[in-house]
Amino acid sequence: MDIARHRLGSQHLARPVFDDPAEVVHWMGAVQAQDYLGGLWAVGVRTRAATEASVEAAVARRAFVRTWPMRGTLHFVAAADVRWMSQLLTPRVIASAASRHRQLGLDAKVFNRAGRVVERALEGGKCVRRDAIYQIWDAAGIPTRDSRGLHLLGYLAMTGLICFGPRAGKQQTFTLLEEWLPPARALERDEALGALARRYFTSHGPATVHDFAWWSGLTVTDARRGAEVARNDLEQADVDGGSYWFSVAAQPKRGASRAAYLLPPWDEYTVAYRDRTAVLDPTHTRKVNAGGGVLSPVVVLRGRVVGTWRRTLGKRAVTVTPTYFGRLTTDETQAVAAATRRYGEFLGAPAELAR
Predict the structure, then answer these.
(1) Which of 80, 106, 250, 313 could form a disulfide with 10 if both were Cys (CB 3.0 to 4.6 A apart)?
(2) What's the pTM value of the predicted model, to 2 decimals?
């Protein structure tokens, strides 16, 4: 099994089939969006003919939202999945942050009071910028300095009170989750574990239970339970001594590995696995890795990370400047140039590959 090539297919990087960005987010289960603009491109690169505007339009129509569903990290999540996914995953995140909350003087009393204050400020469908919320809290005697404000927002999002709304210019807004999203069916714990495992292994497979535990923030025991619940919808294979789960429905298409891909920082293709050696040579880890996560935008060829890239926005065009780990052939360079043009189409501006 060519794990990297299979993942290109399962993640819909190779020959995307979805026209609606919301379908991509639902398929993936969650799309990391710590870097907001990078998150938009992560959805766009998996959607046929998507533009940055069309992905943001899906956010505005409430098809998916940005919030903290797992690992204390921002993701895009489908509207129907936010509640059950947060209920399953965020208690461990909140528990792990308890010592930091104590250092900041944040306890149940403060969280409850901050929640009441922000609920009054947002009720009626209002979307309020983060800086304005901080001002409201400060005026109410709830200090937001020293990252207290961010921890308050994260806690209230993880406990289901608020979520991100659409951007106001370049600024992020927050709104009340119950007013922003329609009601959704709750899932029992085993049902939720199975649903999450099914979604992960179908969209990210082949992957191991330990990969799933890393991505979701579940314990390995719970991750294994989820895989067992979803077993009838998945396949399992032993590769190089590892047990990998995947879906036959997400088999890669012929020729899928020939294209090049410019992926954003924290992309699901690189960050969603505990073991990344299938796509990234360990000798290059430090070139793209910092703080335990793959942070840099990366160039992918034949399913493998072959370099990093950065963009420069000009008045009329965008320039993509790659830094390769080794020499590329003429055909490979042409493939990267094609990926650059696709990125320009997404931004709605001409794009060129720096030489």
Answers:
(1) 250
(2) 0.95
